[in-house]
Structure formats: C-alpha cells, structure tokens
Amino acid sequence: MSASAAEARRANTQISAGARTGHALGRVATYTLVGAVALLLAIPFLWMIGTSLKTDSELVRFPPRLWPDPVAWSNYVRTFTRDDIPIHRFALNSMIVTILAVIGQVLTSTMVGFAFARLQWFGRNVCFGILLATMMLPSQVTIVPVFIMFSKLGWTNSWLPLIVPAWFGSPFFIFLVRQFMLTLPRDLDDAARIDGCNTWQLYSQVILPLCKPVVAAVAVFSFQGHWNDFFNPLIYITDPEKQLLSVGITYLTTVMSIGPVSTPWNTLMAVSLAMTVPMIVIFFAAQRVFVKGVVFSGLKG
User: Fold this and answer.
1) For 237, phi and psi rounded to 5 degrees?
2) Longest dimension (CA), the chain
3) Alpha carbon 161 to chain centroid distance?
4) 10 Å Cβ neighbour count for 223?
5) 139-177, pLDDT tens digit by residue?
6) Please, which residues bridge with residue 258 across strands?
7) Phi, psi torsion values for 258, nearest 5 degrees
C-alpha cells in the first residue's frame, strides 16, 4: 500500500512539474507576443520622435535613419517661439478650452446620470430612451442649424460654441455614469435619507465620491475628444489668435517652407508630439480608475 502511495505521489509530482513548466512556457510565449506587438505599435511613435529631432538635411537622407545624428533639439525651441505661427498660443488656447469643457461635461453628465439612476420620476425611462436615440444622429447632420443658431447668438469666432455645449452633458457620458451608478446598492440612498440627507447631499456626499472610476473615464474621454477636436474649431473660429492647436498645425503646411523640403516634417512632428504627450500623461495618470470605470459601467442596465 505504501509503495503504491509513493508511486502516486511521484506521478502527481511529475504532473505538477509538467503543468508548471507548461504554464511558464505559456507565460513566456504570451509576454513575447505582447512585447512584439507593443514594439510594432511603438514604431510610428518612435519614428515621430526621431523625425522631430532631425535637421533639414537629415529629412531627405536616404536611406532614412530612425534616430538622427546629430540630434536637433533646437527644433522644439524654433517651433514654439515663432511669431508668424504662434504654436505656443494655439497650445494655450487648446488647454483652456479643453479644461473648461471637461469640467462642464463631467459635472453635468454625473448630475444627469444620477437623476436617471437614483431618482424616481415620471417619464424617466422615456427620457432616457430619447437620450440614447440622440446618439444615433451624427453631429455633422445638425451642423448647419447649430451654426445658424450660434451665429444668431453672436458666438461665432469665439470659444463659446466649443465650451457651452459641453456644459449640457453628453449622451454617451450620461449613459456611462448611469450604468455605473446602477451598480451601487440602494441601501446607500436609504441610509442617507434616514440620516437627513437631501437630494443634493445624496449626490455630492454619498454617490459621487463612490464614482471616481467612471468620473475618471468620462474625464479622459472628454479630454481626448476636445483636445483632438478639429472640425468644430475649423467651423466656428476664424481669428488665428483664437485658434486651437489641432487646427493650428495645418498652418505649418501652408505657411512654412524649410530648406530642401516643401513640408517641414521635423516641425510637424515636434508639434504632433507636443499634442500627443498630454493625452499620454492623462491616460497613465488615471489608468487604474479609468479601466475600472469602463468595465463596471456595463455590468448592469
């Protein structure tokens, strides 16, 4: 009996060792594949960085090199200190508009999402259905009547058409917030009401502090949408002094002509990198709560 037990233990040990080896090989293969894909996806970004540091002569070099020699750090100084194309002003304008729009979109989307998720009122589901239906209508379809409305208000050639609509919420963000708030237990509302909280206190002191993941998700999505927005600034703003960075980049291809090349790729890549960095910083700063907010927003509906 003891001999058979020893053989069984040896067999189990061999099976366990084989399983661990297979698991380790699987992890190595997975990490290798993920690393290769990540490197492949990083090549365009590395190429953009390298191009932004190339001299004018290096741009037309053949065969091209990923990393230039010498490195022209002066490209960034030259790009952001020009007077004829004030890239630094465009970047500041974009940051102001984006921050104001994000604040408004986060605030109003959480408030409306709270009303749909936690409050009981007549016609709530009908209104929510209408809200979702508006997501099926592309913004380009309504651009003419919206432009006429803003023109009648005297808001054209200003930042108001880019900021004010954000303070009325976004259907997609309201949907995300509602879905997340539905996952929170109703006992919280009852306990808060018993303690004497009114509706505003329930929203601001009980529910909203628990919604950091979805708030981060809304903030990141909103920042990305407004920071990269090209269509609306192009339509509503005509004064170059008020223009945003997304449109200001196009001025480089129409105004500048550097050396032997007709398109200043090193300057364009320097500006493009400056436009990309804030999005990367925002995403990694809010990565944990951002992913959690996106995941939990679809658990209950």
Assistant:
1) -110, 125
2) 95
3) 21
4) 21
5) 888 889 999 999 999 999 999 999 999 999 889 999 999
6) 261
7) -110, 120
